[in-house]
């Protein structure tokens, strides 16, 4: 059997990935969603007074 098929270092990625940008984008989107929810909840809370 060919050993090169079992070595992950020899695997050629079909597309390049930048994990840091993926994680940063995920955190940014999640933060933006929570911010929007917080602004809406604050506005609703102030309108009910």
UniProtKB/TrEMBL annotation:
The keyword Membrane applies. Keywords: Membrane, Transmembrane, Transmembrane helix. It comes from the Bacteria. The chain crosses the membrane at residues 20-46. This is YqzM family protein. It comes from Paenibacillus ehimensis. The lineage of its organism: Bacteria, Bacillati, Bacillota, Bacilli, Bacillales.
């Amino acid at each position: 059997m060919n050993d090169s098929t079992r070595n992950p270092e020899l695997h050629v990625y079909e597309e390049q990935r930048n994990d840091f940008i993926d994680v940063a984008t995920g955190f940014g989107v999640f933060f933006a969603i929570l911010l929007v929810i917080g602004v809406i909840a604050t506005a609703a809370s102030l309108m009910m007074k």
